[in-house]
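Example with several molecule types.
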Amino acid sequence: MATNPLALAPTPSEASVDYVKLDHVSLVYGQDGTLALQDVGMSIARGEFAAVVGPSGCGKSTLLKLVSGLVPPTEGSVAASGHVVKGPLKTVGMAFQNATLLPWRTTLQNVMLPLEVVEPHRRRLRRERQSYEEKARALLATVGLKGFEKKYPWQLSGGMQQRASLCRALIHEPELLMLDEPFGALDAFTREELWCVLADLRQQREITVMLVTHDLREAVFLADTVFVMSKRPGRILLRREIGLARPRGLEICYHEPFMEYVHELREHIVHVRES
Amino acid sequence: MKGRNLLEKLSPLLLTLGLFLGWELTCRLFKIAPYILPSPSASIAAGVKYAGPIYLHAKQTLMTTMAGFALAVVFGLLLGAALGSSRAVYRATYPLLIGFNSIPKAALVPILVIWFGIGTVPAILLAFLISFFPIVVNVATGLATVEPEIEDVLRSLGAHKLDILLKVGFPRSMPFFFASLKVAVTLAFVGSVISETVAANEGVGFLMMSASSRFDVPLVFAGLLVVGAMGIAMYQLFASIEHRFTHWAHRGRNAST
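Resulting structure tokens for the full complex:
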């Protein structure tokens, strides 16, 4: 059969695989009408780990806010889980560069915060506090925070705070995890340690991840797909699949295929910055 | 180290004693007439002599002050919450608040007297009017400075505005709130005593007014000392309450790991 491959429409099952889909999305910010994003199109499959890299101020963080429904697009459409995003999604886990733990709560209480907000946990929490607490403790243990449940955030190091912040983003078992430079403020060793923690956490559950970062090595190490954004107004310039086998150990960072990916992405970014 | 700690603990007491000593010596050395500036010993003697009436008047002042202060706390929390959680309310209300706070509150006493007569009611109201402002400002500041990231975290979980207010806004503004209580309670004393001085038949303010009309200046000073002492006591009370409820905001040298 001599069919033109370009004419093939995606089958319905293939189309529904897109968990997050942005279609010609533009966003104008504020009263002076700054164009933050321009004609952005991207799709992320269910269970995919997507990283977004780009020069600072290109609207990477805005992209996360759009997808989680915190900001409506000026033009175009945003869909998640097959539905058009109209308001804040209720099943998103979020973590930022700043751990934003609440200083009046212990680590355990901080991690359990989403359970006090998200249904159906919110209704059940009072009756089943015991089992929920067990779950939170177990999650803290998997990121190496066993024994720190009763500590307050300011008694933890930066890396520990970020681990707790990851737990808070995951405790309610969200379908979508949004990470906005979560390791940006950490030292290099702690950062690499947390890459592994995150990779492990993700290995254990069916979850779609969007990671915004300016660290290309981080993007390549963690992601299945890397999107490169232009400087403001942000557009998607490149979608690169990272074909490294999983699980990935830190040693791959020093080998050829990994380096090649990083160099390729780096060239694009340099090009973007100079343009 | 231990001696130093002790010195630091006792320093307020030592400074107060030193001040009184200097005052006493000044009065004696320069032979200042007691109806101009009575010495502390004379003031305290007057206080002891009139301990019964002073106690009754002080009780009245404490009652009006705390009643006015309680009103200020309730009103201040409500208005502060409104101002802190809505930009529109903030914009609309703030100029009025500033304007009102610029009015010398003593000037309001005659109006309050026309409306409510003399006595307890204007004293309570003046204590309230003079002390609610810092509470409003501090609660509003605490709420308005909630980090946008934590708000995003909660909103993306489907939290309502009320959830965010209860889980983050209010706990976060508690240190601001308690700090303002310490200031507000001392201001409340100013309000009630001013009102009593002008328009009342009881209270420390009234006592001082009637004593000064008899040129019993030591008794006036005794009254001032009593008001000051009550102010310090209330300040201490709210400082210890503050410490109990917002220990997380006061991680001092000894608290961190």
